[in-house]
């Protein structure tokens, strides 16, 4: 019988996939790695009965590293790391996984790669292929493409096996190599130098640099400085209130908004109260809707979970991945917010009808027919994030994230909330004011989506042309306030806007700058830069090439996309980017005192470096 | 000479609705004649327009011109009717925060400050939408008052050169020394005053207002 080796990205995924393909009748065997089991079952593939072995890696199997001659920190001048040879090796703790693959590959004729269908997954797939074909050169290699671990998706994937995509994997190789070269050179340079210059504060500190980390840090510093530099200003406005028949009162706001000149406002105020009779000019009623949410992509999931569930992006993605490997939701790393035409939404909604909280709502959607609100982005690989299987057996944050995905999906497939807005325009001695009210007619999606609020406010009936004397006409003073510090969701929005990292890596970069103490969080979970983070950004900014600004990295991300699409050659991009970053590095070394000076603002006077130190440190 | 001065005075009054101090007018006509180097004598019409051009670029405070009623500032409300030729000393938009305006002028504004995670449809923007209201500090040469853009006045903007002469006309109210002007009340005549153009740039006016 034909033997086929199947390799998934993680043990959980291998287990779920084997369960789905075998109808729950797979046999478990041990491999060399105790975390990565082997699941065996029979399967009819290529019109013949095959024996399938499904096993897994644990993410990347190989890593990039320098040759031994360049590995030690003091072994070389950091600038040589831009050209030093590098190679891929298997780290010690993954050797067992590699041995399992090699042993299994020897006995199999065909390899099917089941890693996650994203860039990293494609690259991991090629690592698996490299290891397996090294021991079994004539192995036939296929790639299974899928966005969720459901029976239908798995059956489709295996019926449509494809060649793996070398372009996508190349893009990851380029990114890895650049991250290694740029990260190692700058990290060594600034760590070795600054440990000597500020021995009291930084003697034991690793001061890492990464081409995504720094722009991420840069956003935090930038906003912090905007807040610091802000100058509050007084303003004045006229406010009119009017009693309602029953009780309470309504407030009319001034069409001029607010004025930043006391005298100007006083003149108009005196003008108004000279003849304080209000005339109703126009009563407008118009339908107003509150839009249901757009189909969910990764960036929105991270932002919404951070804002509405108070679960940070890194934690959210960890949970989402677990839900995905257990088959509860579709693949959570997606840029797509348009549901594909051939996705059977009815079936997905049908699965939710028995839930005691949202089941009834799901039932109503089925009566009217699902009508998803789509966005305008697609990565041509995965659908928007949606539930793939019903469960009420989850706990804690897993339960909350799953519930969010379900409610978001149901809300997206239902209808906008409908209301009627009433606006009353009045004039008092030729100054204009207006009040608006809202009557909610149909809550629709809001019934299943507690994360959005919409509150009505009923205005009294007013006739056009009617006149009344307002209860009060006041001149009030206020003050402008600074923009707020960045929340995690704001920071992700900025990274997304400027193309820093991919939706798959935003959360990691944010965690890195937290772990390095470049930034911290205030009590209300807003980002502030630490002294080290602030000083580094100021130092590099003082050199004038904006290492903390996004364009250098954004250009690379764009090039990576072009490699994936086969529009740019990997070697060209690599050579180009290495040259650019090396230029910046050389220049940074000659202007290194600027970093000392900036940090001295925070850490006190710098140590003078001896000539010997200087030689080593640059 | 005297008849030339009085004919220029007549022309300014009738054609430009402009009354200027006698001593300035005499000195100005004198100067124009002494500067004249052409083959023939100056025509009256040339003198008229040369005097008017001089008026546009002079500083009304230096020639001690005067056309507004005294004590406007002390009175709660005064109707003004007639034609008044005034000089703009400075302009500022009081409809938006000065800090933000200053950043725009200096080119240090940064769109990142507007980025928040809230979707555009529901976002309460950080700053509400401003509506322009210009406040002009003006003088007739003797009395300093303000002009408020009570209704939009298209011919004015924050970049108007300090020292520009304008004509205020019609029936218009002045409250607490502030003229509540509308489009039909204002005509821009032109001109400038070098010293004011230097000191009252948008940047310095905003810095002082902050
Ligand atoms: Mg993955």
TrEMBL record, chain B:
Highest taxon of source: Eukaryota
Biological process annotations from GO: double-strand break repair via homologous recombination; resolution of meiotic recombination intermediates
Entry's Gene Ontology cellular component terms: nuclear body; RecQ family helicase-topoisomerase III complex
Residue span, RMI1 N-terminal domain: 13-63
All copies of domain RecQ mediated genome instability protein 1 OB-fold, residue ranges: 68-203
Family: Belongs to the RMI1 family.
Protein name in the entry: RecQ-mediated genome instability protein 1
